[in-house]
Amino acid sequence: MLTLSNSPRSVTSTPDFFFFAHHATDLEDQSRHFTLSAADIALINPNTHTCPIFRSKKDAEITKAIYRRVPVLLTEGPPEQNPWGIKFQRMFDMSNDSHLFRTEEQLEAQGFTLKGNIFQRGSQKYLPLYEAKMMYHFTHRYGDYSMRPDGSQDTELPRISAAKLQDPSYAVLPRYWLEQWEVIKATTDVPRILIRAMEVKSEDLTRQILSAWFAGYALANDREQIGDKILMRNMLSVWDSMDMAIQHRFAAMALHVEHPLDDSDFWDSSQMTYLEAAYFLIRKRTAKWLLGFRDITNATNERTVIFSVLPPVGVGHKAPLVYLRGQKHAFFVGATSSFVFDYVSRQSIGGTSLGYFILKQFPVLPPHQITEQQCNFVNVRILELVYTSFDVKGYANALEYRGQPFRWDDDRRFLLRCELDAFYFHLYDMARADVYHIMDTFPITRRKEMQQYGEYRTKRVIIEIYDAMAEAQHSGVAYQTCLDPPPADPRVAHSAIEQPIALPSLRGTFEHLSQFPADAWATPDLVVPEYLALFALIDVMRAFNGAARPQDVRVAAILVRNPAMALAFLDQPKAKEWVRVVGVEALPVSANVVSIAYFQRNATDLAWSNAMSQLTGSGALQTGADQWIAADHFPPSSGQDWMTGRAAIAVELVSTVLAEEIEERLIAFLRSVEDGTATRAVS
Question: CA 482 to CA 467: how far, in whole Å?
Fold first, then answer.
């Protein structure tokens, strides 16, 4: 209702606002009138300068007070203020990108097998396409299409039972899947033009792009000298084009600014082609976890802002993604999932969509104001809440955790969330009376808990913890958690024996090689030597059950990386089957084997040295003169079926041949490759 008057008003007076009035008599309620100045509107919505929506004067005062203390997530420029370095992405449009999607029936008809929620056929994978309805606060396992009744068109998916969620290997099934490469392209932090160069397999274009990108890094770090050891580190022979790239400073710097490189992105790759180096960078810089939020929402929903950590999967456009700079992402996850953040967000959402322009104007403490102690408090609680299944291991690793997933325990999860909410109430400097008021603005939560518990349990427990934290601050004694064991304690994690063991097909033996299709264990295109060596070392050690003689590990790894050399131990029927499953790499030709001199001197190539350095440097692999041992935090597997299968066979061969015969038989085989007689074994 717009009210006009002919009475004069002072230019300094502020207008009177009233929202959600259904009847003229509602205007008599003075507690729902509030004033906003132009400065107030600019404070709350600095980018759009649109008017926020408040239900009461109390809401207006609390919200203004929050914004005076806490800046918005992103202030548009110039100059732009983006302390979190946040970027937004809508990954796959459910209509425009539908040609990429496949159903379960389509993939099964093409010979793919479902493992968890990923379809695989040899080295080819189709990843699940997540939709917003499949996620909620602190869980990416909120909705499962496999639980929807046949023929149902209900847009809401059935809730998943706690019993299912207690299984760390349980993965929800989507409606659609899409090829893994499409997800990699969408989530890797490299210049888009580099991906296009790879897809057309252009060595020259790839060289030019890498050169320009590296040149941008050189310029940003004052390393313009071509051949600078820190910049190049013997990476690629790109000196000829580096000079040209540095001359085009603006373009080179733009690539680095948009996709910042650091020293970890440079490694010795003198044996690589440019395409192989590009593929290595693409995979290295591909997101290992994602953070998304629900676009469809409403200020009157039970909760308005729903953020969730996701595995590295495809994601539909109704669950936009955010990417953050720095290591304080858990703090952001906790903040955006808190009641105080949700309360503030409701004052700015007038429709049913949470657009980027709205989200940018929500208040979030900038990273530089967050202490290490505050991060530690949040990190362990977010870790236990989020890491309840193996498919978000990438996020656990980002929090520097290498243990097992945590058990799904509804009682503990409730307390963990209450501690986080009380913590953020304090961090946003909310008075106790304001906490009471804010919690009372969530009527659906209150109604549900009154029905289930006979009280508003969440409000009571948050207030109790809030008081305990206030007392701790007053007394100078650290707050003591109400959880026993404390958050993220190993005692509340699954035991190591609950790690899902590989399927029998992954621990393959010659007895069931016939079950695999042709080329099932072929090396995927563009797998670089560094990955091949690292995968081989991991899976060979695992196939040896974590302990083996050094010479046995080396020989088994040689067979894995050079599968043609396994023919030295196979009769003709097994040799033919091996070549069928592995593909052309297993043919006994000189290009597929190492030289006799290399084998006899136990030579170590660069890729193998790097793999050893990576695992021994982290303490994951303990090397002795007589035995190598995998430590507790040794990787469970390479995650590559083709590699795991090869490793199982290689270890089987090495374990069944007398040690003194291994070298003799391999050298004899290598000689037969040189003289051409080895081809008879597979002809």
Answer: 13
Q: What angle is formed at CA 645 by the lines to CA 548 and CA 649, rounded to 5 degrees?
A: 55
| DSSP designation for 683 | -
Output the CA angle 200-201-207, nearest 5 degrees: 115
Written as six digits, the tokens of 49 are: 């300068």
The answer, yes or no, to whether residue 611 has pLDDT greater than 50, is: yes
Question: How far apart, in whole angstroms, are the C-alpha atoms of residue 123 and residue 214?
Answer: 31
Cβ–Cβ under 8 Å, residues 348 and 67: no
Q: How confident is the model at residue 519 (pLDDT cuts 50, 70, 90)?
A: confident
Q: Average the pLDDT over 418-447 and give the result.
A: 97
pTM of the model: 0.74
Q: How far is CA 296 from CA 306, 398, 442, in A?
A: 10, 29, 18
CB burial readout 668-683, b (16+ within 10 A) else e: ebbebbeeeebeebbe
d(CA 207, CA 663): 41
Q: Are 78 and 85 in contact (CB under 8 A)?
A: no
**Which three-class secondary structure string do you get for 580-593?**
HHHCHHHCCCHHHC
Please check whether residue 386 is in contact with residue 309, taking contact to mean a CB–CB distance below 8 angstroms.
yes
Token pair of 209 as six digits: 């792009």
| CA 134 – CA 157 distance, rounded (Å) | 8
Residue 250, Cβ neighbours under 10 Å: how many?
A: 8
- For 517-547, b/e burial (b = at least 16 CB within 10 A) is eebbbbbeebbbbbbbbbbbbbbbbbbbeee
Query: Is the confidence at residue 267, as pLDDT, over 80?
Result: no
Distance, in Å, from the CA atom of 582 to the CA atom of 579, rounded to the nearest integer, reads 5
Mean pLDDT score across all residues of the chain: 86
Sheet holding 547-548, edge to edge: 547-548, 628-630, 621-623
- pLDDT recorded at residue 324: 95
